[in-house]
Amino acid sequence: MARSIWSGFLSLGLVSIPVRLYSATQEHEVDFHQFERGTADRIRYKRVNERTGDEVEYDDVVKGHDVGGGEYVIVERDELDEVAPGRSRSLDIEQFVELAEIDPIHFQKSYYLGPSDDDTASSYALLRTALEKTGRAAVATFVMRGKEYLACVRASGPVLVLETMFFADEIRDPVKELGDLPKAASRGKQLTMAVDLVEAMTEPWKPQRYHDTYTERVEELVEAKRDGKEVVAESPPAATGATDLLTALQDSVAAAKKTRGKTAAKKKTAKKTAKKTAAKKKSAA
Predict the structure, then answer these.
(1) 207 and 164 in one domain?
(2) Which of 10, 80, 161, 262 is most exposed by smallest CB count within 10 Å?
(3) Which InterPro entries does the protein's record reference (predicted)?
(4) Would you call 117 helix, strand, or coil by DSSP?
């Protein structure tokens, strides 16, 4: 059984449903330690008092907010918890929205939201079914680990999924960040071919077909260096010039259609084989 990272009440009007929050994802990582170059000496970090040079125990560390002029306001952990009493135990639903209305740029991290006791599991299931039937999501707020989160709660199969979200003022303005962005042509052969390429490469979403190739390369690098071998680096792709764009698009469309045709042929063959196998089993029975 997974260990929950937060527990509290999902509050909807006068209804309170005890729930627990669980991590829904895990990232691929190759662990590395830090060493001084040319030695086998590990590099370690310590909490050190910059004035005395003495190491400081974790329990003796407090937070300080810079108010300017070299002055800090010191805040204890307990004081942060007391700012919003009860908020760290309540997931308050503010409204319901069409899930499709939320721009994915707002999504931060996914969690599973599960019922915490059998007595109220039916209330949990009722909300999940209602969200699934309406195609809507609940927008809620809650406090976890000293931080307030905006959250989206949605149905996903048998479970409720909670997505922590960025607040509107946390999302940067693309124009301010990137400056004036180029405008695409509204018509012409290039746009037609670009649309054709999108259509030719459109397939049902199958997350299982993708895997972390970079982590695999890192693991290969570590293994090769352990065996004293060299790893040849891949060359980055060259940028397509404006004069070559139409040709590149046409070739890409042709390649995509060819690949799609092969995939369709394989599926057709697999279906025929499955039908033959089923027929043989039926006749044998």
Answers:
(1) no
(2) 262
(3) DNA_bd_Ku70/Ku80 (IPR006164), Prok_Ku (IPR009187), SPOC-like_C_dom_sf (IPR016194)
(4) coil
